[in-house]
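Appendix C: a fully annotated inverse folding record. The material below is reproduced so that readers can follow the format used throughout the book. The structure is listed first as tokens, followed by the designed sequence.
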């Protein structure tokens, strides 16, 4: 039986040039690794990230002694991690320390079983009745906390679902380049452009014009918590109250092919989400900061009928087992999932395998540009081509 024999944890850089950690786990015959991404517009209910030095110390001094010589089985290892930190947000050991070990261990287990990662992961998910191809959510215009000088809304997506994943990737990239030809602009944290725009609606006119084709839809991650203060929403040139922002979304839905709307209100606004959801005709509401990949918060969202989709970011919760639990629980309640990157990313492609394995509704990996984002899109192409 393969057992955990050694662990390495050290600092590396993420796509913003900030320090994050990489975890490597060794068994007798194999090793596997995971590099941790980091968010900027973080939900306040997310698992706690400790400073890299502290997380590394915890991995070496607290976690490793407890998992050494244990079977390479990520679910059993996750149980140990959860018993070491019983706080609701992993503030004792750090969500970055626990997730690094958890995912590295799952990757190692896939190697031990000699399976491509996505095939190894598949068995942990309840099968959907009908297997569907992924929507790709490509963030082509950045704002909010990801882009200085941009509009208040954080992400403007082109949503693609061509006949194959590679056709979606290449079409998205073509449209991305086309937008770039029209603009003189900076690039934001996720590779999207940061054009000078008057207000939050102007980027949508641009995308609507670029996409022309009917089968490309538009999406928004508003990340409303980042511009919500004292009951008001501070957009670029105006301040709105709840009713006004709600009406703004309804107007956008009437005017554009808006398929997807993430975090339209602040992270504690379950009722607000649900009021908007009742009024929207076709746009799907996704919970990110609202639900933080956390089953308990998801329960609340289900009770209030607040969302159609759950955004899944493993580092919001801190172990792969809990991530899988949230996905399965969402599905049992007719909520599908979008597997997502973070704004501070690494070259790691685990989330591409996860999106395929759970047959997610969508994958949100940023712009089709910059190595840390293209690595994930390229992994989707690789899986589809059968070169595992
Ligand atoms: C989001 C994410 C990723 P961050 O809000 O959905 O796009 O941003 O990683 O900064 O939380
Ligand atoms: Mg978000």
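Designed amino acids, in order:
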């Amino acid at each position: 039986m393969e057992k955990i024999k050694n662990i390495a944890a050290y600092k590396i850089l993420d796509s913003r040039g900030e320090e994050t950690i990489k975890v490597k786990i060794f068994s007798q015959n194999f090793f596997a690794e995971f590099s941790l991404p980091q968010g900027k517009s973080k939900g306040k209910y997310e698992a706690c990230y400790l400073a890299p030095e502290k997380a590394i110390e915890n991995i070496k001094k607290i976690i490793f002694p407890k998992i050494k010589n244990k079977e390479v089985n990520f679910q059993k290892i996750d149980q140990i991690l959860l018993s070491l930190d019983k706080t609701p947000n992993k503030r004792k050991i750090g969500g970055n320390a626990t997730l690094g070990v958890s995912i590295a261990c799952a990757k190692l287990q896939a190697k031990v079983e000699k399976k491509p990662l996505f095939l190894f992961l598949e068995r942990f998910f309840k099968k959907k009745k009908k297997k569907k191809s992924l929507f790709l959510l490509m963030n082509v215009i950045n704002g909010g906390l990801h882009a200085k000088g941009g509009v208040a809304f954080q992400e403007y997506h082109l949503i693609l679902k061509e006949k194959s994943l590679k056709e979606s990737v290449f079409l998205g990239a073509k449209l991305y380049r086309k937008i770039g030809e029209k603009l003189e602009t900076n690039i934001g944290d996720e590779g999207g452009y940061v054009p000078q725009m008057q207000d939050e609606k102007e980027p949508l006119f641009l995308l609507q014009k670029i996409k022309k084709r009917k089968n490309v839809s538009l999406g928004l991650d508003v990340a409303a918590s980042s511009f919500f203060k004292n009951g008001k929403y501070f957009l670029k040139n105006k301040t709105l109250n709840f009713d006004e922002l709600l009406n703004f979304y309804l107007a956008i839905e009437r005017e554009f092919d808006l398929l997807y709307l993430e975090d339209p209100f602040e992270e504690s606004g379950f009722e607000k989400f649900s009021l908007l959801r009742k009024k929207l005709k076709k746009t799907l509401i996704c919970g990110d900061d609202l639900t933080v990949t956390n089953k308990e918060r998801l329960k609340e969202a289900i009770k209030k009928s607040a969302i159609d989709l759950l955004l899944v970011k493993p580092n919001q919760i801190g172990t792969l087992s809990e991530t899988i639990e949230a996905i399965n629980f969402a599905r049992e309640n007719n909520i599908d999932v979008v597997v997502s990157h973070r704004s501070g990313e690494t070259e790691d492609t685990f989330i591409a395998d996860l999106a395929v394995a759970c047959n997610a509704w969508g994958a949100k990996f940023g712009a089709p540009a910059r190595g840390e984002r293209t690595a994930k899109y390229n992994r989707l192409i690789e899986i589809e081509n059968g070169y595992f």
